[in-house]
Design a protein that fits this description.
CATH superfamily: Vaccinia Virus protein VP39
Order of helices and strands: HHHEEHEEEEHEHEHEEHEEEHEHEEE
Strand order of the largest sheet: 9-8-7-10-11-17-14
CATH topology: Rossmann fold
Bound molecules: the ligand Nc1ncnc2c1ncn2[C@@H]1O[C@H](C[S@+](CC[C@H]([NH3+])C(=O)[O-])CC(=O)[O-])[C@@H](O)[C@H]1O
Largest sheet: 7 strands, mixed
């Protein structure tokens, strides 16, 4: 599938979600990012994509490791080499024709923590904000969603999504290379909106929550996952500079504070369904993501602290309803 083929296929999918004007805004920005002003590495990534075996192929999207293609039915060395052209692979895991892509994150663990609590996704229109490679989008489609739109500004992640789509093209999963703030506002277009791992990157977290609310249809469900700290309704941490070596980390609220933010933004039925410490088993460097990872970001003398001295990463999943 060429980029133009992808844009042609994306067009009717967006048309079914948005008004004509909103559809044009999303499509033209997508075209601008991919065709008019592409990322410098895009030709190399597209060449790697193109060197993968042709699709479609049998897929199993309801497994913790998303399985694309029949193991052993293609030359493993060639498949591995193509996929290595799309390194770093952060969110997964995947297996292409028997080649295991052991991603930096065990994204399946997050899915297992939250999936039992969701309003059933069957028949719902879903938005996944900051979707990374799209790993969770495929799980949402396998759970019966009518359509899933993932948005993420990182172009490599869009190409990783296209590597899966090559085989799983029938699943109603779409990807637009946009930030949440670039999506049309007040669309009421989605029944479930996920924002996972994005809120702490936003300078203005309440505006992010209001943008998510605007994307939801009345009665729709928000799934908000973010870094939190322990504390009460008056606790929020703002790091002085980096947090766990990450730049652009702004607000880490307690669950009680995050609950208040959601309520002040007009959400109801706000509840925390999971709160857990991120482990070095869940996030670590692998052959498919060779940069530093969580074990390098913690204080070697005291792994309950980041190397800057803040509480180590702890994440919560909150659900809420738009009235
Ligand atoms: N303003 C923004 N709008 C949209 N996406 C953004 C924005 N800012 C950053 N991103 C994107 O949000 C993703 C955050 S990772 C979570 C992935 C997945 N959700 C996960 O829960 O595993 C963080 C983590 O490692 O948890 C990255 O892919 C960014 O490009």
């Amino acid at each position: 599938m060429t980029l133009n083929d992808y844009l042609a296929a994306l067009d009717p999918a967006l048309r079914s979600l948005f008004t004509a004007q909103d559809h044009e805004q999303v499509l033209s920005l997508t075209r601008h990012r991919l065709v008019d002003h592409p990322h410098g590495d895009l030709p190399r990534w597209l060449a790697a994509l193109d060197s993968l075996p042709a699709g479609p192929a049998p897929c199993q999207l309801d497994r913790d490791t998303l399985q694309l293609g029949e193991p052993g039915s293609e030359d493993s060395d060639a498949v591995r080499q193509s996929l290595q052209g799309l390194i770093p692979w952060r969110k997964g895991p995947f297996n292409f024709f028997g080649v295991a892509v052991d991603t930096e994150w065990r994204s399946d663990w997050k899915w297992q923590r939250l999936a039992p609590h969701l309003a059933p996704l069957a028949g719902r229109r879903v938005l996944d904000v900051g979707c990374g490679s799209g790993y969770h989008c495929w799980r949402m489609a396998a759970a019966g969603a009518e359509s899933v739109l993932g948005i993420d500004p990182t172009i490599l992640f869009l190409v990783q999504y296209l590597a899966v789509k090559r085989y799983a093209g029938q699943a109603p999963v779409w990807f637009a290379p946009l930030r949440m703030e670039e999506l049309p506002t007040q669309t009421d277009a989605f029944d479930t909106v996920f924002s996972m791992g994005v809120l702490y990157h936003r300078r203005s977290p309440l505006d992010h929550i209001l943008e998510l609310k605007g994307a939801l249809a009345p009665g729709g469900e928000l799934v908000l996952e973010t870094l939190v700290v322990e504390g009460d309704g008056q606790t929020v941490l703002m790091p002085e500079d980096r947090y766990a070596r990450m730049r652009n980390v702004f607000f880490l609220p307690s669950v009680a504070m995050l609950t208040l933010w959601l309520q002040r933004c007009g959400f109801t039925d706000v509840r925390c369904v999971d709160e857990s410490q991120t482990t070095v088993q869940e996030q670590r460097a692998t052959d498919w993501m060779r940069f530093q990872s969580l074990p390098d970001f913690l204080d070697p003398q005291d792994p309950s602290r980041t190397c800057e001295g803040y509480p180590a990463p702890r994440r919560a999943v909150l659900l809420a309803r738009k009235p």
